[in-house]
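Regression test case RT-17, inverse folding.

Input:
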């Protein structure tokens, strides 16, 4: 009790100027990751027109980043714990700068694929290291909660701003979508060298679990690929089932490798934290529901309502209100009601937001769509950062990188599953039909994925509220 009280009192102290500057630098890095993803998505048509890319190669430019990001996230978190959070953060940022620049200089499709894959892998090392640095540079309690809230909301603000910047930069030259992040990253790198401190004095002599990382990456990729193939379940069904079977075998192999490894990628004892388990499941479902929704909404606005990409981007900007609301409102809600109750409210708002779009019609105006966008922005405001807080709260300092890697992997894997699931259901319902009415029905049916994911997230969080009446159940016991 006395330890918790002292931590709370320490956390209530205002940030020092150096601590505030450190937080700005770390937020700059996660902001960089957010705008990088969003800007590229908007610039894809201009890239294809200039480099004459096939549709397969163009989609690969996007998926290559996700592959590198999700596949190396846990390894990145582990690297931060072993080699030092500051060292890994700066090294990954340097790689990000180099390969983002390569993307801007690309003259062939393979150069873009390589650049995006390595940039995604660099982000996979940089993001958990950055989150761990936030956790270790601010004392647990209100001050850390406030810092993590600002950090998490900055990521979504970067994504929102990137939607607009991508359109503007692509209108000038799509290569600036790659060069602009390089300039920002260079400024962050210089400031980080001077400001960021790491409590870990020296690297530990431990090994990487490469077999575990490769097995986990392959298991996730095959799972997502299997879901994508479900859009045509009657074609090569045996092959699709085989893909799911191999994925399941790889998940089992990963579990066995981790149990037998002398230096596991994931110490399964960390899952004794009920808060960490719920936050990871919540992150998977929250990201899955949002990315499925974004995919559906984009198709609806552009293909059925005839909006331009820029109009679509501006319409979705209201979701970015979390960048303003979250730092002000969310810390107060968390302090008063706790993470689980705030996350539950966020899931409920998200479910209502998605459900409202089930009534969408071919003649809707933005006034009919706005309530869904606003509610989703509020859902992000009160759920996203508490999910991140809960993932690291109570975790031992030497495993903060692992905790950050787990929750970010859950976000990425959930995003891929949600997008693939919504796409598969929509394509299956549409079949060979081409009419606007048939496409509308397919999108409405696909909305079942984000609605169901949000409801499932609310139910899981509700069970956590019943089981955990105080912070003691969220603590990780020593192994």
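Golden output:
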């Amino acid at each position: 009790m006395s330890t918790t009280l002292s931590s709370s009192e320490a956390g209530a102290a205002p940030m020092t100027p150096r601590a505030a500057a450190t937080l700005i630098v770390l937020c700059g890095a996660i902001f960089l990751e957010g705008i990088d993803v969003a800007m590229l998505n908007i610039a894809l048509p201009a890239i294809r027109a200039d480099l004459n890319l096939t549709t397969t190669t163009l989609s690969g430019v996007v998926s290559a980043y996700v592959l590198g990001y999700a596949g190396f996230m846990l390894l990145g978190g582990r690297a931060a714990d072993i080699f030092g959070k500051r060292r890994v953060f700066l090294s990954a940022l340097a790689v990000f700068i180099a390969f983002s620049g390569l993307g801007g200089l690309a003259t062939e499709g393979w150069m873009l694929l390589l650049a995006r894959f390595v940039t995604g892998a660099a982000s996979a090392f940089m993001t958990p290291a950055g989150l761990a640095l936030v956790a270790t540079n601010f004392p647990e309690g209100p001050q850390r909660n406030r810092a993590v809230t600002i950090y998490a909301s900055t990521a979504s603000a970067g994504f929102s701003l990137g939607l607009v910047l991508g359109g503007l930069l692509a209108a000038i030259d799509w290569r600036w979508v790659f060069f602009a992040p390089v300039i920002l990253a260079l400024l962050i790198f210089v400031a980080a060298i001077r400001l960021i401190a790491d409590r870990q004095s020296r690297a530990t002599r431990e090994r990487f679990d490469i077999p575990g990382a490769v097995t986990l990456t392959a298991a996730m990729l095959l799972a997502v690929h299997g879901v994508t193939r479900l859009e045509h379940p009657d074609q090569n069904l045996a092959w699709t089932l085989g893909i799911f079977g191999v994925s399941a075998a790889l998940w089992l192999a990963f579990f066995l490798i981790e149990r037998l490894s002398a230096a596991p990628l994931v110490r399964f004892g960390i899952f004794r934290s009920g808060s960490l388990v719920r936050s990871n499941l919540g992150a998977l479902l929250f990201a899955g529901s949002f990315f499925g929704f974004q995919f559906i909404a984009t198709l609806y606005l552009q293909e059925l309502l005839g909006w331009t990409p820029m109009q679509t981007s501006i319409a979705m900007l209201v979701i970015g209100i979390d960048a303003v609301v979250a730092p002000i409102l969310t810390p107060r809600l968390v302090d008063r009601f706790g993470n689980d109750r705030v996350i539950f409210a966020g899931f409920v708002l998200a479910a209502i937001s998605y459900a409202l779009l089930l009534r969408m019609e071919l003649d809707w105006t933005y006034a009919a769509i706005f309530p869904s966008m606003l509610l989703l922005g509020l859902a992000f405001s009160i759920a996203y950062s508490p999910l991140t807080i809960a993932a690291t709260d109570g975790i031992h300092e030497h495993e903060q990188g692992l905790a950050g890697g787990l929750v970010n992997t859950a976000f990425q894997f959930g995003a891929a599953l949600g997008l693939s699931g919504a796409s598969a259901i929509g394509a299956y319902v549409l079949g060979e039909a081409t009419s606007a009415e048939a496409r509308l029905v397919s999108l409405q049916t696909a909305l079942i994925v984000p609605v169901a994911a949000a409801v499932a997230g609310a139910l899981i969080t509700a069970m956590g509220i019943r089981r955990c009446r105080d912070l003691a159940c969220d603590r990780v016991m020593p192994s």
